[in-house]
Design brief:
Blueprint lengths: L8 E4 L3 E8 L11 E8 L1 H11 L4 E7 L3 H12 L3 E6 L6 E7 L5 E7 L1 H4 L7 H8 L7 E5 L4 H10 L4 E5 L3 H4 L11 E5 H8 L7 H10 L4 E5 L5 E5 L2 E5 L12 H14 L4 H16 L11 H5 L2
Helix pairs in contact: 1-9, 7-8, 9-10
Length: 307
């Protein structure tokens, strides 16, 4: 199949300023640890958009920022990366920030996020922008939302978006519950086992098959359920496909799930069936795990097809 993308993606969600620390030794509590620091754009919708742009997909990003230096840095970098962004400035709020501490093996030791600018936003914050973009959207358009958006906003957007496919990312255990009223409306949900357990009310110890059944019972028709190195379940209207992640040396786990989502969305936008599309997502995730931050410098559509 030719690499001519037909479906644009419109992403709505978090635009964060990420600070990533990599400890030179295991990070210990109540003392300082020598580390390398990296500052990059972040937030699920932003990570997905940056990956999609690198993969050649026409991408628009909708989000909110503060009236501060971080906002200017982020907007300039997103523009330089070719991402058409529509930002609402909320004076009196700081641009969303995320701080992650990684041990030398790349595992996440701890993380903090300040996302009040979005989590406390009114439900209609992006309504005018969505109205404008909806005027040119068609059934091929992919609308992507992340669960960083408040629950009332997610419900409003689901009602407002009439043309195209609506896909989502659960973001975290706590925030995944915000998507519960939307499950029957979603064309695909990307989530991990912990997020799925929280969304369905099952214990964290529940197995992936039990969780998958609960998601279907809750009204979700299509989803991609990840479980770290244990594997992935792609459920597409009753058809179950099991996939195994690519083997790779882990440098940094930041953004790997977002890269999987983006690689999959890129392939779907190109016409691949979801089951095959997720294989491209796994390749994108492997490249990201081997890099620092949420975007692998080596990522390209050519790199994914060369696996």
């Amino acid at each position: 199949m030719s690499p001519s993308f037909e479906s644009p993606v419109i992403a709505l969600g978090a635009i964060h300023y990420d600070t990533i620390a990599h400890g030179a030794e295991v990070i210990r509590p109540e003392t300082s640890t020598p580390a390398r620091f990296h500052a990059k754009p972040g937030g699920v919708a932003t990570n997905v958009s940056r990956n999609l742009s690198r993969l050649g997909v026409q991408t628009k990003l909708i989000g909110t920022v503060g009236d501060d230096a971080a906002a200017q840095i982020l907007k300039e970098q997103l523009g330089e990366e070719g991402i058409e962004h529509f930002t609402v400035t909320r004076s009196g709020f700081s641009t969303g920030q995320y701080l992650a501490l990684h041990d030398p093996d790349g595992s996440l030791k701890a993380a903090c996020v300040d996302d009040r600018i979005l989590s406390e936003a009114p439900a209609d914050l992006f309504s005018d922008i969505v109205d404008r973009l909806s005027a040119t959207a068609d059934e091929k358009t992919i609308w992507f939302v992340d669960a960083n958006l408040p629950a009332p906003m997610l419900e409003g957007l689901a009602s407002q978006i009439q043309s195209g496919r609506l896909m989502a990312n659960a973001v975290s255990d706590a925030k995944s519950r915000r998507l519960k009223p939307l499950l029957s409306r979603l064309d695909c949900l990307y989530l991990n086992r912990g997020e799925a357990a929280a969304l369905t009310g099952l214990p964290a110890s529940a197995g992936p098959d039990e969780i998958s059944s609960a998601l279907v019972d809750a009204g979700l028709k299509v989803f991609v359920l990840t479980d770290g190195p244990s594997g992935i379940i792609v459920s597409n209207k009753g058809l179950i496909t099991r996939l195994t992640p690519e083997n790779t040396d882990v440098v940094d786990v930041t953004g790997a799930g977002d890269a999987l989502t983006a690689g999959s969305l890129a392939a779907v936008s190109k016409g691949y069936a979801l089951e095959e599309a997720v294989r491209f997502g796994l390749r994108a995730a492997a490249l990201t795990l081997a890099s620092t931050g949420a975007l692998a410098e080596t990522l390209s559509w050519e790199a994914l097809t060369a696996f």
